[in-house]
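Session log. Operator J.P. requested a structure for one protein chain; no other inputs attached. Running the standard single-chain path with token output.
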Amino acid sequence: MTKDPATMVGRREALKDPLERLERMMEIRAVEGQLQALFNDGEIRGSTHLSNGQEAVSVGIAASIRTSDWVTCTYRGHGMALALGVTPEGVIAEIAGRSAGCVGGLGGSMHLSAPAVGLFPTFAIVGAGYPVATGAALTAQYLETDDLAVAVCGDGATNIGAFHESLNMAAVWALPVIFVIENNLYGEYSRIELTTPSEDLAARANPYGMTSEVVDGQRVDAVMNAMQRAVGRARAGDGPTLLEMKTYRYSGHSRADQATYRPAGELDAWLERDPINLYASEIAQGTGDSVDSLLGRADSVGRSVEAAKERALQSPEPPLSDLFEFSAATALNRVI
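Structure written below.
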């Protein structure tokens, strides 16, 4: 079942295994490839924002937290949803506007949600997840649980007021929240140096007396190690952390963007540090498996995703009556 909580929780638990982490990154890459093809074929309306190249960040975060922790992320959130445990069928069906989707086909590409694994509805508004995650962390603190919140946004979101307000409040109240910046060098179509004077965005934690780290976002183990340190501080009551994940999106900002603004050779340089290839090499060093055999797992993963796509497209569209069934309150109850 695409929306079965036990299935999603089981997928999250599977990330304890390095091979599962590798295959989950392959799955994210394969799902987004299918989504792009479906858009090109006219099967999906609207737009989408791919995260190919950033898979290590999503998987590293998901492997480091519990299902009772809450995560907010952006419209570029397909990878995070899959990493947290939403099934490929649930993601593809949602974006295709089918009832088998994780929100019944009502949210689409920008508004995925899965309460069973802690995924708040993803945000189309830049930076909007920061204050929501701060509020979730305040709730955990007030209820005296040791749960935490993770807010994932892009580098461009660090220039808005909500980012600084959230960091300030979290620092003052020592809230259990981890702020993650996916620094892929571009805020939509603008390169970072055109909009931001700081090369290392982690430094923006300094005025708030907040612990921060710059992390190699292309390496799963580096992401997990940084996350585990931040998780330890949050659960111990030692307050928030800001993590800057240096990463890169291989695609343009959205499906129509050919990314012609990128300097020559930049994409090629990042492809040399593909997170899937890097992790396969690291696993091979520890297990004795060949890199080729590990990368060969992408074939079976791709077939599984292809089958999930077919099931998703066979699912019916939501009935028109759904337009009138959900008030603001009942809609909120459905996704949270």
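Operator note: Residues 5-335 form a domain with the Rossmann fold fold (CATH 3.40.50.970).
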